[in-house]
Specification:
Elements (H helix, E strand, L loop, with lengths): L1 H28 L8 H18 L9 H25 L2
């Protein structure tokens, strides 16, 4: 039961972080929207994107780290968390 609750919380955190990533992306495209609060967003997103950028540097003017991180999060959710949560529902 506790494991199911932890998996459900992790699932919600992944969705929340995905939303934060999309807000971060929009701010990078529309710099006029950036305010002082954007520093907090940078503090949450950049430490995760930086190691990915070391492995996959920007190419052709495109920063692929954002897409790689989204793919990693979605694979973790789809292949690990969602099946485990569905198993919890049947027990």
């Amino acid at each position: 039961m506790v494991l199911c609750q932890a998996l459900s919380a992790l699932d919600k955190l992944i969705w929340l972080y995905t939303i934060v990533l999309f807000v971060y992306a929009v701010l990078s495209w529309v710099p006029d929207l950036r305010g002082s609060w954007a520093r907090y967003l940078d503090a949450v997103v950049e430490p995760v994107l930086t190691p990915i950028r070391r492995v996959i540097p920007p190419a052709g003017g495109i920063d692929w780290s954002f897409l790689v991180l989204l793919l990693i999060l979605w694979v973790i959710r789809a292949e690990l968390i969602a099946p485990a949560i569905s198993r919890c529902l049947f027990f």
